[in-house]
């Protein structure tokens, strides 16, 4: 197999030598055939006339793949003259057969059959006339069959090569598609983990910072409240570490099942979230309307993160006296509304003013909602403050 592959590679680099090989073989056979005596008379010197005509007919085969149709015409003309001048030499149409085969492998099926059938009829007619044979004699039909077979084999070879090329192209496209799909999945996973990290870090660090400010402010005047604030800092930092460990653990897992004992947060955890925010100084009211029902885990996580991010933004970027979170359960949709009465960029925390955010939180909320077929609308309220409204499907339908 290795020797064959090396030979094929060498011939591929030397096109003219590859094209000449069939002609060389035909000439060698002509020399051998011309040296065989007739009537059992044994070997004798080759008949130079027949060999010369065969060599002349095979000479154009050197460029048979570059100009297949002109080569057919030239070789056919030489072979016909050869048959007329040397009717007793049986190899006269061999070069034409090679040329017909090459033409069939290099041109369309219509051209190949048109030229092949025409050349076949001409070869059989000239052979029948020059050899005084009947058009339906065995020798005449043999030439007819050989010419038709050369054309048919060339067409079959071309069809097989085209099928292999198409199969290779499909395989390459499939490979590129798989690579693109893998890159897309990796990108989506990175974006998802980035959202998780942003939500965890932004929320818990905001609470820790707010509670640290409370503890620092009241440490001398009211040690008891300062002690409670420090306890909240401890709890929130431990929760943040657990969630960070669970999120980063996704990067270390070989499959889609992270080995983590930390449960995925959902709507049932909103009460604990709001309690922590109230302890940090943000007045939050939670209201549930409609008939509460269980939602898909992904919907619950998305809803929790949207509320968490909205409240974190309010705490960081607005001085709000009242914040309201509403969960409205519809027939198949969960509507979430978070409103506040604060002014952007006026939040105060132990005398430290907060500036406007980067906008990554709002982008993350929209991306989370869009990933499960929901929507998020956020913007300032006409009467003052800010409003975040999300609509999420309670039951997820598989994507087509």
Automatic annotation (TrEMBL):
TM segment ranges: 20-38, 50-69, 111-129, 141-157
Region of interest: Disordered: 341-360
Enzyme Commission no: 2.7.13.3
Keyword Kinase: yes
Coiled coil ranges: 157-184
Top-level taxon in the UniProt lineage: Bacteria
Catalytic activity: ATP + protein L-histidine = ADP + protein N-phospho-L-histidine
PANTHER family linked to this entry: NITRATE/NITRITE SENSOR PROTEIN NARX-RELATED, NITRATE_NITRITE SENSOR PROTEIN NARQ
Name of the molecule in the record: histidine kinase
Source species: Streptomyces eurythermus
Organism lineage: Bacteria, Bacillati, Actinomycetota, Actinomycetes, Kitasatosporales
């Amino acid at each position: 197999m290795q020797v064959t592959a090396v030979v094929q590679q060498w011939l591929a680099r030397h096109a003219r030598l590859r094209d000449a090989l069939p002609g060389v073989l035909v000439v060698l056979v002509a020399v051998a055939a011309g040296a065989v005596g007739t009537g059992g008379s044994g070997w004798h010197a080759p008949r130079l006339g027949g060999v010369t005509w065969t060599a002349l007919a095979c000479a154009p085969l050197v460029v048979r793949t570059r100009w297949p149709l002109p080569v057919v015409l030239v070789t056919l003309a030489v072979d016909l003259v050869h048959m007329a001048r040397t009717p007793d030499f049986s190899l006269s149409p061999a070069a034409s057969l090679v040329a017909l085969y090459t033409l069939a492998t290099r041109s369309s099926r219509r051209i190949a059959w048109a030229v092949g059938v025409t050349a076949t009829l001409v070869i059989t007619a000239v052979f029948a006339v020059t050899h005084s044979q009947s058009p339906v004699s065995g020798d005449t039909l043999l030439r007819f069959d050989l010419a038709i077979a050369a054309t048919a084999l060339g067409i079959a070879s071309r069809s097989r090569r085209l099928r292999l090329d198409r199969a290779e192209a499909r395989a390459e496209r499939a490979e590129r598609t798989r690579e693109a799909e893998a890159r897309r999945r990796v990108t989506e996973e990175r974006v998802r983990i980035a959202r998780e990290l942003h939500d965890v870090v932004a929320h818990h660090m905001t609470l820790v910072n707010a509670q640290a400010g409370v503890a620092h402010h009241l440490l001398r005047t009211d040690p008891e409240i300062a002690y409670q604030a420090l306890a909240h800092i401890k709890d929130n930092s431990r929760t943040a570490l657990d969630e960070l460990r669970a999120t980063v653990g996704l990067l270390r897992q070989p499959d889609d099942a992270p080995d983590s004992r930390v449960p995925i947060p959902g709507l049932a955890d909103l009460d604990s979230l709001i309690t922590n925010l109230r302890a940090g100084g943000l007045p939050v009211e939670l209201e549930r309307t409609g008939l509460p029902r269980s939602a898909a885990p992904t919907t619950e996580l998305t809803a929790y993160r949207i509320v968490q991010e909205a409240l974190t933004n309010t705490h960081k970027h607005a001085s709000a006296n009242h914040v309201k979170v509403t969960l409205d359960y519809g027939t198949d949709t969960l509507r979430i509304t978070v409103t506040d009465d604060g002014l952007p960029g006026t939040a105060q925390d132990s005398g430290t003013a907060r500036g406007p955010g980067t906008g990554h939180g709002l982008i993350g909320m929209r991306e989370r909602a869009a990933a499960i077929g929901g929507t998020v609308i956020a913007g300032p309220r006409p009467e003052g403050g800010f409003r975040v409204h999300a609509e999420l499907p309670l039951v997820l339908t598989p994507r087509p």
